[in-house]
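Sequence in, structure out. Go.
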Amino acid sequence: MDPVDSEIEDPGHLPVMTDEVIDGLNVSRGGIFIDCTVGLGGHTHAILTAAADARVIGIDRDPEALEIARNRLSKEVSRVTLVRGNFNGIKQILANQPQELATEGASGILADLGVSSLQLNRAERGFSFRSDADLDMRMDQTAGETAADILQNLGEEELADLIFAYGEERGSRRIARAVVRAREKSPITTTKQLADIVVRALHIKGYWKVHPATKTFQALRIAVNDELSGLEQFVSDAIDCLKANGRLAIISFHSLEDRLIKRSFQFAGGSCICPPGPRGIVICSCGAKKRVNVITRRPITPSAEEVAVNARARSAKLRICEKL
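Output:
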């Protein structure tokens, strides 16, 4: 078996909710589809397989993932355009494509917001505490601060706020205090160092179902890659890039992302998102205007059968809207 194929077929690399994505995007009708987080090419491969006249523009900011996807999709090279970039720049990316791709509008757009298995399983990328490695966590390793940089540079209060906001970690202040004390002795540069600091700070001993450092690592990863910034704007921009009746599908893996997507879909669906004022009275100033029909009032979640095969899918939520 080709090493690329074996990597794709490993359960840890399976794309999440493929059937639901294909159905939700109405791929069978063909057209141009944009895979905003192409990763190893799993969803793109499924789109191309589902419709002979489908074309895909695949975007990813991880050059290593793009190279694997390029090899994986080499047999469909005439129907795939791979672009290195951040999906938040979807409008500019589409504008830079050949005129037929840039002006027709997309039949469907997909964004899978999860960290790819390639990144999680490569110890040297520093996303996971399962192996000891440098605290990097950058999806694009050519630019930006690493997780180690953030741990070294932020003040205790800022670090606590970051861990609480992005990790929803109740013990954030204890963790931040422990990090500051530890870095006074020596810089925190490896995943094991950080994981051990978190465990000691939270005083958790013995067996645990979920590793105590999970939320802290999530918070740092989100901060390093600026994952939440611009997500609501991305939804608006992606809708602009759709043709009439085109669909936008977004897969999220934690509540922070899902809340932002739900709110963005509600706003694009014409629902006011202004908070209630005094006495619970809402005075709308958000200017919500109906641009889409929300297909999923509640998110689609993976089946028990899929979770049994691919544990990565267990926290996935899929939301879909259709442009008017």
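Check: The first strand starts at residue 31 and ends at 35. The two ends are 45 Å apart (CA to CA).
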